[in-house]
Design a protein that fits this description.
- The structure is a homodimer.
- Chain A is an alpha+beta fold.
- In chain A, about 35% of the residues lie in helices and about 20% in strands.
- A 6-stranded mixed beta sheet of chain A has the order 4-3-2-1-5-6.
Chain lengths: ~325, ~325
């Protein structure tokens, strides 16, 4: 049971109980995703506290005991001994802003566990990838970028995606030269970067394809593909995260486009779209069996266009590209 | 300028500078919505700190000075004197969990300002409501609830909605008896509760219509409508929030369904889908000019069905129902 595994780890950190309120961590531990205000306390007898609106669902679906939420002013009484909270940006900010945050520490124990996926999580991510992969065949580029995104999202939703894993990116023409370009109300031009994912049982998928139609675009696309292959080729347990990033980066740099690869090569995902590990040149740590990471090098030439290719890889001694059913190069018409 | 207004208020609270990192508050103050990690510091010379990925956009669109983000360990040096953070659930938790959180206080100054909308905000919300209202005419109930939601969301997206303001609810048949029912892969039955909204320039809309087709459903629907009218009729500046809730609640109670009205009558919205004020029987405070609130009573009969009707109201001496172009009763076919 996940609670005991977390508790053992917390005890090693000299922590007696932990306060959890991120919905994705509650889902991870209890298998119940709250629709409203909820919190979970980890100790020898873990309890999930939910709002009245979630009570029936939680009792039916949570793997741990469920009770009614208590007033915030009472929560301290529910915890024993040395207390930890989840690691969060809010907590990080407060730590750096405050002279003293009293008795509280944060623990990354749950985020650490979440980096390697269970069998059930891998199945959910496979399903999420299946929904996303099928949907790209239904995308319609004959109108605006927003229209194209809407056709893709529509197909994911009717096939069981709760919602897009993140705001779908359809960035075309010169707008593709920014990796975070917002999907616009402009007509689709070439090339077209589409970065999208589904959510199945709250688990994400994350794929990018770039649709190209000129020699210049193909030249850049081939470099990005070679870089991605170099990264994917070395993905297995024990390999340094920074080496995976550099494998892709070195290819792009050799071709003279290093300065235009302005993000890291990949990241973990699961219940969140961005999770540890970060596959970056300045990451510490190594890949582990059953991590799932993206490999997504890109080249963004200012004022011209951008190309990115992204696949999802399950790490093992025989790493599996979970998105392999989807061709790297896809036909399209405007 | 919003910064000076916030600063004056902070000085009254004996605070010298404030650390802001919620994207919606950054948008409210600077008019720029960050796509990535960003924070903003309020003092005499306010600065927005953004990630490299947002730099160009922020410089083009932010109304306040933009700089590169600093390491978290440096943020304290950017702030002067007594420091405040935004009011957040995380901060509330920490306050109750910790023995002592040092020198930090939280301030609701920005959330308080955001309760009354500026001209520009009202225009954005009108546009968001326009997109959402038009889309309901395109909903297709002939397949699953998910399919219906997808048809509605598709129409909002192609007409300029960034994304749904929240997970669209299509809850039909017995599933409508829970106010937070998830949109399912089951075929649509009657009655159908549809609760939806768009996001235009990051501003939400929030509407509910219930599609009915039997006498029993109509009986309940008429009670909910009478309750909603009773609430809307008294909405103007100076009226107690609790009186608005009770106006609707009293009608439903008189008809004997009080125990089945299991949420509050309404809430503010804007950059977030739920904002102050909460229109509840236990709310303190009164309505103010230029607040925008929902009026959404409902009756949920366990094991049978539910009915909710929700409109958006701009508070003034002549309060305006912003969603009035949309009929309360809409035709449909399954």
């Amino acid at each position: 049971m996940k609670n005991n595994e977390i508790l053992d780890q917390l005890n090693d950190e000299n922590i007696d109980s932990m306060f959890i309120f991120k919905p994705e961590n509650i889902k991870y531990i209890s298998d119940f995703y709250p629709s409203s205000f909820a919190y979970l306390i980890i100790d020898e007898e873990p309890v999930l506290y939910v709002n009245s609106i979630d009570k029936q669902d939680a009792q039916a679906n949570s793997s741990i005991e469920t009770r009614d939420i208590e007033k915030l002013s009472k929560i301290k009484d529910l915890l024993k001994g040395n207390i930890a909270v989840e690691n969060s940006l809010d907590f990080e900010y407060l730590k750096f802003l405050s002279d003293d945050i009293g008795n509280i520490v944060s623990s990354t124990v749950i985020e650490d566990m979440r980096t390697t996926k269970t069998k059930k999580e891998i199945t959910n991510i496979r399903n999420s990838i299946g929904i996303a992969s099928n949907a790209i065949g239904e995308i319609d580029f004959t109108s605006t970028e927003k229209y194209a995104a809407a056709t893709l999202e529509f197909d994911m939703t009717i096939n069981g995606s709760i919602k897009p894993a993140f705001d779908t990116i359809v960035a075309s023409g010169v707008r593709s030269s920014s990796p975070h370009s917002l999907t616009s109300m402009n007509r689709v031009e070439s090339p077209i970067v589409v970065d999208w994912g589904a959510k199945y049982d709250h688990y994400c998928s994350d794929i990018t394809r770039t649709f190209i139609d000129s020699e210049r675009q193909e030249e850049i696309w081939n470099i990005v593909l070679e870089a991605q292959r170099a990264a994917i080729d070395i993905i297995k347990p024990g390999v340094k995260l920074s080496d995976v990033d550099m494998a892709a980066r070195d290819v792009i740099t050799e071709y003279g486009y290093g300065e235009y690869f302005i993000h890291s090569t990949g990241h973990g995902f699961g219940l969140n779209i961005h999770e540890a590990p970060n596959v970056s040149y300045n990451s510490d740590g190594v890949l582990e069996k059953n991590m799932i990471v993206t490999a997504e090098p890109g080249i963004y030439i200012p004022g011209e266009f951008g190309v990115r290719i992204e696949d999802d890889i399950l790490v093992s001694n025989n790493s599996e590209v979970l998105t392999s059913s989807l061709d790297k190069k896809l036909d399209f018409s405007l």
